[in-house]
Amino acid sequence: MKKYTIPCCGLLLPFLILLLPGCGDYLDVKPDSALIVPQNLQDYQALLDNDFYIMNQEPALGFMGADNYYLSDDDWASLFTDTERNTYIWAEEIFDSWLPQDWSLPYEQVFYANVVLEGLEELTVSQAERAEWEGLKGSALFYRSYAFYALSQHFAPPYDPNGAADTPGIPLRLRSELEAPVSRASLQETYAEIIRSGEAAAALLPEHSTYPTRPDKAAAWALLARVALIMGAWESAEDYASRSLGLRDQLLDYNSLDTAAALPFALFHEEVLFHSVLLPYNLSSSRARVEGNLYDSYAQEDLRRQLFFTEEEDVLRFRGHYSGQGNLLFGGLATDEVYLIRAESRARLGNVAGAMEDLNRLLRTRWQAGSFVPYTAASAAEALDLVLAERRKELLFRGLRWSDLRRLQGTPHEKTLVRELMGETYMLPPHSPRWVYPIPQQEIDISGIAQNPR
Amino acid sequence: MKIHLLIFYFLLFLLRWSLPAHAQEEAERDARILRGKVLDEGGQPLPGVNLLLKASRGGTVTDSDGLFSLRLPPGVRPGADTLQVSYIGYTTEEFPLPATDFLEVRLLPDIENLMAVEIVSTGYQQLPKERSTGSFVQVDEELFNRSVSPDILSRLDGIASGLLLQPQAGGRELSIRGRSTLFANSEPLIVVDNFPYDGDLASINPNDVENITLLKDAAAASIWGARAGNGVIVITTKQGRHGQAPQLSFNSNVTVGEQPDAFYIPRMSTGDYMATEQALFEGGYYGAYERAADKRAISPFVELLILHREGRITDAELEAERARLQEGDVRKDFERYLYQQPLHQQVAASLRGGDHRQRYYFSAGYDKALERLIGDENSRITLNAKNSWAFFRQKLRFSTDLYYIEGRTVNNGLDPQGLRQSNFDALPPYSRLADEGGNPLPLIRDYRLGFVQGAEAAGLPDWRYRPLEERELVDRSNRLRDFRANLELGYQLLPELQASLRYQYWNSNGLGRDHYGADSYYARDLVNRFTQLEDDGSLSRAIPMGGILDERRRLSQTHNLRAQLLFAKLWGDRHELNALAGWEMKGMETGASSFRYYGYQEEGLLVAPYDGVTRYPQYQQPSRRQIVPGGQQLSLLHDRFISYYANAAYTYHRRYLLTLSGRRDLSNLFGVEANQRGVPLWSAGLGWNLHGESFYRWKALPYLKLRGSWGYNGNIDKSVTAFTTARLQGRSWDTGLPYASITNPPNPALRWERVRILNGGLDFATRNHRLSGSLEYYLKRGEDLIGDALLSPVTGRSQFRGNVSSTEGRGVDLTLSSLNLQGNFRWQTDWLWSHARTLVTGYEAEAGLYQLLSFGLYPREGYPPLAIYSIPWAGLNPLNGNPQGWLNGERSEDWSAIINNMTGDSLLYHGPAQPQHFGGLRNTFSWKGISLSCNLTYSLGYYFRRESIRYGNNRGLGGHGDWSYRWQQPGDEVFTQVPSIPERGNSYRDDFYLYSEALVERGDHLRLQDVNLSYTLSREQWERLPFRQLQLYAYARNLGILWKATDKVPDPDYRTMPAPRSLALGLRADF
Questions:
Q1: What is d(CA B965, CA B962) in angstroms, rounded to the nearest whole number?
Q2: How far apart are CA A401 and CA A391, in angstroms?
Q3: Is A184's Cβ below 8 Å from some Cβ in B?
């Protein structure tokens, strides 16, 4: 028996050896080397740096529904999507059959932010990496806060402290898990969460970030100031704005800009605190026209008159994009806005001198050198009128007008929007439910959350 | 680790079966082993032949090369026992036990029970079909060569039971027995010479194919485990034979196809197009174009209208131009200048033979084709060398197979679909590609004519686009080098036990090269767009003048290693055991890179540096800044498997069969916990050869077999992962920072897909094989299928992909073969009928309405995965020609409300989008050397949505030809369902009509697939013939549709391009 079995087993041996090695390491290789399981600070930073497609964009519906521009009949008819046409005339139905990014993109930002926040919680970092870790956490919280803010301006009613606890706001997602049920938080919770995330971000973010696509402390305070202003919390707004200006108060001297350039403003110039652009629709340069009386409200010495507008064949168009690109509208945060927030808060709080100081400091950089005569106001009301008028002239095509019109409802500065189109007149009066966009049907179908009345 | 032990014990078990024999032999030193081989009358080895010592009850079975080694019991002397050699379909031979060590037996066919013996190859072993319990389809060389084509797959169309080649947009969908997966790969696994083939099947030369076996059920497919859920196609290439005199074969053919029909899809006529342009112009539609910052192209006729508006041309001039343009139809130019008749030439030669120690097969093939577009051509060279040696009285076998393929594709053809006026607009039908003399004419492209003229005046180089010239100035090609080496070492350890080690190395090297010459529009346009007009009037260029070269490289490598033990033993004439067990690993690596060179000059290989970081203003729109497109990309993919498998077949009395198989696959499925990486798959089968029973006396039906199998196959979708995974996308345009996107949300419960298959079959043959066939019924249940669940967008994802679905398929495969006439004039009919029906049985989220409507895979519980739904239609409004639907039980034109209120349940379900019944009917007539065979194929029980006009916001400009059948005045609704032109664009109105019931049609049809006519001369008839055999053949494919259920389209399966008719003529010679 031995005689046979030994050679047999001997021959079998290589087979047995082949059978035994473990499969562990061999199968641990990634199927696609471009894939990563995010697990270190660098990976998380890369997710938050997805600026162009995810993190640094925001809804544009508000801009499209507001009064910075108007369209000719032909231009309106040749718009590419029903969504654009419907939004222009505040129609009952807004969306065509595609899921609008105005709704889905901010939530995608929230998802990214939550993935990063959860990943950071599980990461133990060395002391040397601590600052980076905190900066990332602050960034993620900032993006989340910004996304909730953007959603609240479109899909939740204007903020009113009375009844905010009983008014539906937007769904708030604070974890990345997909299974968690979806429901609308109250308006009060919505704003509370925006402030909470924003303040947490401000505490963690670095003093200064190298890239305006990444938020820093000044950006977080600026966001909080913007939100406090919308909530009518003037003290907070002034406080937040002051903190932001305490870190970054540079203004761009418009005298240094080339009025002949096609785009006078560069990408990432010194006023930009946080770079974000509105979702690209087809309303920008080739179609959107500017009303003559808005243009006429700029004094001849006001450099914005030349830098913000072009005139071709009697049609006025806007070109003062802080995005540095003609086809993208800036929607982020910049110091000019922060000055205006503090000026308005001070005016509303009765600090006329303070308000005028902020306003004049801003305008001095907007007028031809030496031509600007500082504004004065005799009363708080006069100061407020001045500040709001200048706000209208400074922050246009920035996605802010819609929020301003919403928050000014019920005040002397409220406005009814009017559009003339194909011989018909469309109106959007204050307090109309159409100041709130409907939630896309796809969302209602799947999660069953309550629709906004139209 | 458990599996290691299991395999180990299995091996021990196999060994133990052999050991008692050793013990007995210890006393008998003179025990000996008889080796030999069994061949058929033509010298082909017969695997699975039973050899039995009648007195001493020892026995064995031949292996896949027809070889056997039989241990002679102690004390048995030559002549003292009788050796019985038996095989189904052959007469049983009996010999006195010979004194030699090596015996060659030739079996003759059983004239009485002429039975085509089919050997099925599973890729791991070969076995006679009689001894299998699974579902196999065998396509032999003769049937395979009935059709003429450069590739393998199209030859299987309509001749392999259960296999469906369904034409789809952009290719064909191949499926075996319906679809049993949703989002994972749905194509069958392709095995070439024992290993899964990773290359492009189209590159294998069909002249090298010996036979093809389809594995359709669990019994055989679980051999292939995790990738066999969609069935397996096993391709075996030709090999020389031991003892075969050298045989030289030669085959050559030419196939001519039909020139494409540019008018196949009806389109708006030139006159209608211009009228629509004028209506749009008058409605102000082109205002935005005229003011567009990007200077977008405006069509020649609209430019004329603008000139006329501005008073720069007179009415008469406009009318004259209109009359001139109206004459044109650019589709005539397509036919004249872009299309050609496809022509394919094929030459192949092979040499094969062998002696008792060595055998060989060498082949070479050359294919060259001119495709349907002028400028598109490809060629392929295939070389193949197979050698096999046997040593030590056939105990040790060694073989090497080498394959080399070199393919080259040139894609310089201009596809009419790619000829557009701009990104926004199609080419106007009055465009002309060439003047009367055939000289290339420029088209308006991308920019307005005035802008282009202005730029040229400013000193920029020519900015016109002349397509016919472009074809000469651009050179796009792909080269593929594919090398494959198979090594096999086999050793007969014991008479019952054979060990083999196989290794395959595959290397595929692709190089794609697109060269845009310096004068090509592509290069000029890019250079011009990145040109800056400086203040002093000078020009500065961000992109160096010159050509552009894009290079794409791709290198794939696979290592496959397999170790296997094969055991075969016969105990008496009752028990027979065939078993195998093995281990294998596979590693595939695919690396790809692409790179672009600017300023490329072929002469001297010059390239120029460029700045790929700065954002430059675009000349046509200075407010828009872009970086110079670079196009550098790298990718690296790994595909790894480790598998264990075992497989046993036990036969009792040659009547009762029991088969078992099991396999475990482990892969590098990303982000899955190790214990979920693998999946155990198994099958069990039973068979009963009724005709072998003593009680079976039915002489008319000498062959009757029942069989059944049950088990699991797997499938894999590597695109989903268990962890949150992200993909690094490169660097941000604005910041230059690397950025990543989340590609997969976390899915900790991810597992492999499993397909459970139950298969029952009945095989029969009447006396003399006049009528034979098989009937199979199967149930296929897909479990844990990867599916999409729609998610609330609030989650940050609009859908989730996970193991959320299941499907259930059932069907019947029937093949009948009837020998209607025998003798000098022979007539045979083969009929294939397959019925396959798959329903989604589990799907978590109901697909959205639009997803259900738009053709695609949007599963819904209780319905087929690919199905056609529509919105109920209530006719056209007689007053205005608006399409009408139903809303709350009433006729309505509120299309958005109709669509938004529609649910899956209120949609009309028509039926599956894939045929439920399909097959072929093949009649073959032969007389002397002439043979005529014609195949009809049919597809029944499915639906499709036909194309029609979408008005969009431009009154349907350039759209589908249904435009001219639209409602125009009251009364038209009686004979048309095409809505009127809307006042202004409304996407809901368009969608409502295009997805309505009015456009759904039955796809059922009967097609004359092909006809083959051949004439064979052989030396048996003509002794002075210089060849052993010479065959002349003609083959025509896609001859036409004989019947179809719909009268709305010419061909339900080919709606954008007609099924190309072709005629091949060829010659085959054997020396």
A1: 5
A2: 9
A3: no
- A 120-159 residues inside an 8 A Cβ radius of B: none
In the stretch 743-772 of chain B, residues with CB closer than 8 A to chain A read: 743, 745-746
Residue with the two structure tokens 């007689």: B878
User: Taking a C-beta distance cutoff of 8 angstroms, is the pair A278, A58 a contact?
Assistant: yes
**Side-chain half-sphere CA neighbours of B84 within 13 A:** 16
Subunit contact B796:A112, Cβ cutoff 8 A: yes
Within 8 A of B621 by CB-CB distance, chain A residues are 326
With CA atoms as reference, report the closest residue to A191 among A219, A172, A216, A217: A172
Residues B866 and B173: beta-carbon distance below 8 Å: no
Six-digit token pair at B451?
A: 């802008």
pLDDT digits (tens, 9 = 90+) for A363-408: 999 999 999 999 999 999 999 999 999 999 999 999 999 999 999 9
Interchain CB contact of B23 with A (< 8 Å): yes
Cβ neighbours, 10 Å, residue A411: 11
How many of the other CB atoms lie within 10 Å of CB of B392?
A: 10
Output the CATH code of domain A41-447.
Answer: 1.25.40.390
Of B667, B729, B900, the CB nearest to A27: B667
Task: Kindly state whether residues B80 and B22 are assigned to the same domain.
Answer: no
For residue A178, list chain B residues with Cβ-Cβ distance below 8 A: 745, 791, 795, 797, 800
Show the domain range for B100.
32-106
Please state the three-class secondary structure of B527-559 as a single string: HHHCEEECCCCCEEECCCCCEEEEEEEEEEEEE
Determine the Cα–Cα distance for residues B85 and B51; give it in Å rounded to an integer.
Answer: 5
- A88-131 pLDDT, tens digit each: 999 998 988 778 999 999 999 999 999 999 999 998 889 999 99
> Within an 8 Å CB–CB cutoff, is residue B15 touching chain A?
yes
pLDDT per residue as tens digits for the range A171-217: 999 998 887 888 999 999 999 999 999 999 999 999 999 899 999 99
**Residue B723: inside a domain, yes or no?**
yes
Residue B909: helix, strand or coil by DSSP?
strand
Asked if the structure places residue B226 within a domain, the reply is yes
Domain boundary among B219, B239, B259: B239
B540 φ, ψ (degrees, to nearest 5)? -125, 145
Residue A11, pLDDT score? 45
What residue ranges of chain B have pLDDT lower than 70? 1-31, 110-118, 169-171, 220-222, 670-678, 844-848, 850-851, 854-857
Q: What is the pTM assigned to this prediction?
A: 0.79
| Total structural domains within chain B | 4
Res B333: pLDDT: 94
As given in the structure block, the two tokens for residue B743 are: 């590609």
- Domain end, chosen from B220, B239, B258, is at B239
pLDDT of residue B847: 63
Residue with tokens 């599996």, as numbered in its chain:
B3
Partners of residue A440 in chain B, C-beta under 8 Å: 793
Burial B506-538 (b: 16+ CB within 10 A, else e): bebebebebbbbbebbbbbbbbbbbbebeeeee
- A447 with B794: Cβ contact below 8 A: yes
Residue B64 lies in a domain: yes
Same-domain check for residues B152 and B100:
no
**Closest to B848 (Cβ–Cβ): which among A103, A107, A442?**
A442
Of B285, B726, B798, the CB nearest to A74: B285
* CA–CA dist B179, B187 (Å, integer): 9
B494 touches chain A (CB under 8 A): yes
In a domain, B673, yes or no: no
Cβ within 8 Å, pair A286-B288: yes
- Judge if ipTM > 0.90: no
Question: Token pair of A231, please?
Answer: 């909530």
Q: Does B672 touch chain A (CB under 8 A)?
A: no
